[in-house]
Design goal:
The chain is of the alpha+beta class. The protein is built from 17 helices and 29 strands. Residues 223-302 form the KIX domain.
Length: 702
């Protein structure tokens, strides 16, 4: 018999059903928040996976389109690969939960979250986050929970706890915070230049709400929680560590890892590993875990030197940023390009502009979001870290890094009315040694400015690291962490922003949470560093957006027309608009509001198309002078096409100031002629004149 638990959360009822469905999973929570329904399950294998030195955790967020009453597009009419939103949600669930599993646990664990119904007032991502935590807590899988997650929005300066889909899209803040009983364990944010103090206030507002949720989870675990199962530990034997230290002393390991060159360090460790493999050649058990043992030895060495002596592997000060360099226009013929280098991290970003019709179409659970105008894509080839492996397309890490840099720049982009372009930036990782996503943010910002995108302010990003000791007060914050400090440290705290405030945050940690002094210190350190990067590196390369788009970028002109006349411009089955496109070679986009964007590389052709469209939507009135094509000739006069399917007639007596014997003596079919409208009768018949005297009257009136 199942049990149901409920609590009031942000003015709505959160209900959790246990033992109602999916009983064969190690843990299952059937979640209801408003009308949003998510099934969250946690399952684990009986034995550890052989031959691995990491915890094999998989987090899935499945978007079922029946949850919003949609049938999937495409030929197969079923859900395909995970959407970008699903991947990003899976990462947000993974990041706070992974550190709470035992470090020596090697059993496969899958956390599956299936969205079955969506209430626009209750975001399914939040329900899945809570469901994953609850399913794991009540399961028999070893887990040092509970943890809880809360989302904070902000409209007109007021915080909104767990905002609706509409509030999430419209507000100035998209903040997700995960907490344990005592500490913040994960932060993910997109913000419209929120000041640091306001962001900290929002983070700890969410932390307070999380404590109430954790109390609720405790009641569920008390009644339904299973005893945690025992497992085969994969910890490195202490005897192996002792034997390694006899061969490679701590001083020798310190000398091997403390260098500012990544390749030199890796070569030093390779030589040490070979030396140890020779020494332990007869001990297969030790050889099987030797790589992990050397890794742990490096980690302890680096952490000790940073924490006790404030000595970093590359010799920098705790707050020092690696050497910086920036340049623009290094790639010819593209619409905009920039390269940003920070130590051994190097990103080249290329910007491409296109008509709004080329923006990305979305097929997800949010009915209000059907397209995306700005796209940032991030690529991480193996050569960037000196490795070789085939490219299999972007993985979850690449998608996550791209989304973070994209989120960082959205607040400073011009509106569609100000700049009617679809915008794509692509970050190519040339070299990687720590925080390429923050380098991508800097490179993207400069690339956009080089392309002539009138962004409102410059944006930069930096990552702050952490090494902790035995107590909450024993910690060291590291500005601009490199790869080694990321691998062996406790935190990767990434913050992007302008001079006025934060635009994005992403925090990954490997410990059981951060104290408030650490959070506040990291945010302050990142502000100081990003301002330094902008002033000393980015602004000397390009200080403001170019005044117009580049030579090879498409040019776009906009006009507004009466929405009721859109049909006149389009024509039956698109015949009118297609004819304009054929004549001028431009692309034309028309919105439902009557905004017309004309895109092309030839300014004269853009003007021609613009003139034709204006002619079509302008009512013909007496006194107007119009240029049109002669389409038909009769003995008594010529018919001129003034706009599609709208002709006027020039009587033979109005073809010239002189007597005309034959119409063909003055005009022929296909001629472009300038005429004056003399009259439009009640039946809509239009009388025209080509007499120079009539045309001259119009000119004198003007």
């Amino acid at each position: 018999m199942y049990k149901s638990f409920s609590m009031e959360l942000a003015g709505r009822t959160l209900t959790v059903d246990v033992n109602r469905v999916a009983k064969q999973a190690n843990g299952a929570a059937f979640m209801h928040y408003g009308d949003t329904t998510v099934l969250s399950t946690a399952t684990a294998s009986d034995k550890p996976r052989d031959g691995i030195d990491f915890f094999p955790l998989s987090v899935e967020y499945e978007e079922k389109l029946y949850s919003v009453g949609k049938i999937p597009g495409g030929f197969n009419k079923r859900e395909g690969k995970a959407s970008e939103n699903a991947i990003l949600t899976s990462r947000v669930i993974d990041r706070p939960m992974r550190p709470l599993f035992p470090k020596d646990y090697r059993n496969d664990v899958t956390l599956n979250n299936m969205v079955m119904s969506v209430d626009p007032e209750c975001r399914p991502e939040l329900v899945a986050m809570l469901g994953a935590a609850i399913a794991t807590c009540i399961s028999d899988i070893p887990f040092d929970g509970p943890c809880a997650m809360t989302q904070i929005g902000m409209i007109d300066g007021e915080f909104i706890i767990n905002p609706s889909q509409a509030q999430w899209k419209q507000g100035d803040l998209n903040l997700t915070v995960a907490s344990t009983r005592e500490k913040v364990i994960m932060i993910e944010a997109g913000a419209n230049e929120i000041p640091e103090a306001k962001m900290i206030e929002a983070i700890y507002k969410a932390h307070e709400v999380n404590q109430e949720i954790i109390k609720f989870i405790d009641t569920i675990v008390a009644e339904c929680g299973k005893a945690k199962h025992s497992y085969e530990s994969c910890a490195i034997p202490e005897e192996l560590f002792a034997a390694i230290k006899e061969i490679v002393t701590p001083e020798q390991m310190e000398e091997a890892v403390f260098t500012d060159d990544k390749q030199t360090r890796e070569e030093n460790i390779r030589q040490i590993t070979e030396k140890l493999e020779e020494a332990f050649a007869d001990n297969e058990e030790w050889l099987a875990v030797l790589g992990e043992a050397v890794y742990q030895y490096q980690k302890k060495t680096v952490r000790k030197m940073i924490l006790k002596d404030h000595k970093r592997p590359d010799g920098r000060e705790i707050t020092q940023i690696r050497p910086l360099a920036a340049e623009i226009d290094l790639i010819p013929r593209v619409h905009g390009s920039a390269m940003f280098t920070r130590g051994q991290t190097q990103i080249c970003n290329v910007c491409t502009l296109a008509p709004l019709s080329e923006q990305q179409k979305l097929d997800g659970l949010d009915e209000n979001e059907v397209s995306k105008r700005y796209m940032h894509h991030y690529n991480f080839p193996s050569y960037s870290v000196g490795e070789t492996k085939p490219s299999r397309g972007p993985g979850r890490r690449e998608i996550g890094h791209g989304a973070l840099a994209e989120r960082a720049l959205i607040p400073v982009l011009p509106s569609e009315e100000e700049f009617p372009y679809a915008i794509r930036t692509v970050s190519e990782t040339f070299e990687s040694n720590g925080s390429t996503s923050m380098a991508s943010t800097c490179a993207s910002c400069m690339s956009l400015m080089a392309a002539g995108v009138p962004i409102k302010k410059m944006v930069a990003g930096i990552s702050c690291g952490l090494v902790t000791g035995d107590s909450d007060d024993d910690f060291v914050l590291l500005t601009d962490i490199q790869g080694l400090e990321d691998f062996f440290g406790d935190m990767d705290f990434k913050v992007t922003g302008t001079t006025d405030g934060i635009t994005a945050i992403q925090m990954d940690i490997k410990i059981h949470g951060l104290t408030r002094p650490i959070v506040e210190g990291a945010i302050a350190r990142c502000r100081e560093a990003r301002l330094f990067i902008m002033d000393t590196c980015m602004k000397p390369a390009i200080s403001e957006p170019r005044k117009e788009v580049g030579k090879y970028a498409p040019k776009i002109d906009q006009i507004s027309i009466d929405p009721q006349k859109i049909g006149d411009v389009v024509g039956k089955q698109g015949c009118v608009i297609n004819k304009i496109i054929e004549e001028t070679g431009v692309k034309i986009d028309i919105s439902e509001e009557g905004n017309v964007a004309i895109c092309g590389t030839d300014k004269d052709m853009i003007e021609k198309a613009k003139s034709i469209i204006k002619n079509i939507v302008t009512d013909i009135e007496p006194g107007q002078v119009i240029t049109g094509k002669v389409v038909r000739i009769m003995p008594f006069g010529a018919f001129v096409e003034l706009k599609p399917k709208k002709d006027g007639m020039i009587h033979i007596s109005r073809l010239s100031d002189k007597r005309v014997e034959k119409v063909e003596d003055v005009v022929n079919i296909g001629d472009m002629v300038t005429v004056k409208v003399l009259d439009v009768d009640k039946m809509g018949k239009i009388s025209l004149s080509m007499k120079p005297g009539d045309l001259a009257k119009k000119e004198s009136e003007n």
